[in-house]
Write a structure and sequence with these properties.
alpha/beta, Rossmann fold, three-stranded parallel sheet, 8 helices, 9 strands
C-alpha cells in the first residue's frame, strides 16, 4: 500500500502518512484476524535517502528526505512489528525505481511516461536540477518475479530484501535513451530548479536477493525502455498528453 506518487507527499504530508501508515496497520490487523496468511509488504528505496555509500545494502542507514519516504519507513516498521510481536508470515521487499507498461501517465507521473507524453505533445522535457542524480531502474516484470520468489522463500520472513539491478543511470542519460527510443533525439530538454527532497544517488546492493532468492533481473534497461515506449505509443491516445505536467 502506498501513496502514488512521491510529490503528493510534499503537498499533502498528513494524508500521505494516513494512507501509508494507517492502511498498512489495517492490512496487518486483517492478517492477524486470519483473513489471509502471507503479507509481502512493498517498501521503497526512498527510505535510504541519498546514498552514504554504494552499493546501498539493506544495512544502509535510513535517511528519509520527504514525508513520503518517512511514511514508507514507518509502514515498514509496522509490518515488521507484526512479524516480531504476533509471529505473522510477513516479508518486506524494497524495490528501487520500477518502470514499465501501465505506469501512471497522469498528474505527477514518473519521468518515463512524462517524457513520452511531452514528446507526443511537442512540449519541452523538464529535468529537475542538473540531471546528474542517479537511479537504479528495474523493469516491473522483474520486480514481479522477485516478489513471487520472496513469497515462496521462508528465509525472507521478518527481513527486508532490496529488489534492483545493481546498476545506476543518471536522469540525463535516461532521457537521452528515451528520446532515442522515440525517434526524437533532438527534442528540446530544459533544466529547472531541483525538487525538494530529491535523492542524489541510488545504486542498490543486490547480494541478499541473489543469496536468498537466486534472483537476478533479466531485462536490460534498453530492452525495458523499448517495451515501455511501445506500450505508451499504443495506449496514450486515451489521455491528453498536453495536460501532463513536468516531473520525474
Amino acid at each position: 500500500m502506498a501513496v502514488i506518487p512521491l510529490p503528493t507527499s510534499l503537498e499533502r504530508p498528513k494524508w500521505t502518512a494516513e494512507k501509508n501508515v494507517v492502511l498498512t496497520t489495517t492490512i496487518c490487523e486483517l492478517q492477524r484476524e486470519g483473513r489471509f496468511q502471507t503479507l509481502i509488504h512493498f517498501s521503497s528505496s526512498e527510505v535510504y535517502g541519498t546514498a552514504q555509500y554504494v552499493p546501498i545494502d539493506e544495512g544502509h542507514p535510513y535517511v528519509p528526505s520527504t514525508p513520503y519516504a518517512a511514511s514508507k519507513l514507518a509502514a515498514d516498521y509496522v509490518a515488521l512489528s507484526y512479524w516480531h510481536t504476533f509471529g505473522l508470515d510477513i516479508a518486506v521487499i524494497r524495490p528501487f525505481n520500477n518502470y514499465g507498461p501501465r505506469q501512471n501517465s497522469g498528474s505527477y507521473a514518473g519521468i518515463i511516461p512524462i517524457v513520452v507524453t511531452r514528446v507526443l505533445a511537442g512540449t519541452p522535457i523538464e529535468i529537475f536540477g542538473d540531471g546528474l542524480q542517479t537511479r537504479d531502474f528495474i523493469f516491473v516484470r522483474d520486480t514481479a518475479e522477485a516478489a513471487m520468489r520472496v513469497y515462496l522463500e521462508p528465509r525472507t520472513r521478518g527481513r527486508v530484501v532490496n529488489i534492483a539491478t545493481g546498476r545506476e543511470c543518471t536522469v540525463n542519460d535516461l532521457v537521452t535513451r528515451l528520446l532515442h527510443a522515440l525517434g526524437a533525439d533532438n527534442h528540446p530538454v530544459v533544466h529547472v530548479e531541483p525538487r525538494l527532497g530529491d535523492v542524489r544517488r541510488h545504486l542498490a546492493g543486490t547480494t541478499l536477493a541473489a543469496e536468498l532468492l537466486d534472483f537476478t533481473p533479466t531485462t536490460p534497461l534498453e530492452e525495458g525502455l523499448t517495451q515501455t515506449v511501445q506500450w505508451y505509443l499504443t495506449n496514450l491516445s486515451r489521455h491528453d498528453p498536453a495536460s501532463v505536467p513536468a516531473g520525474q
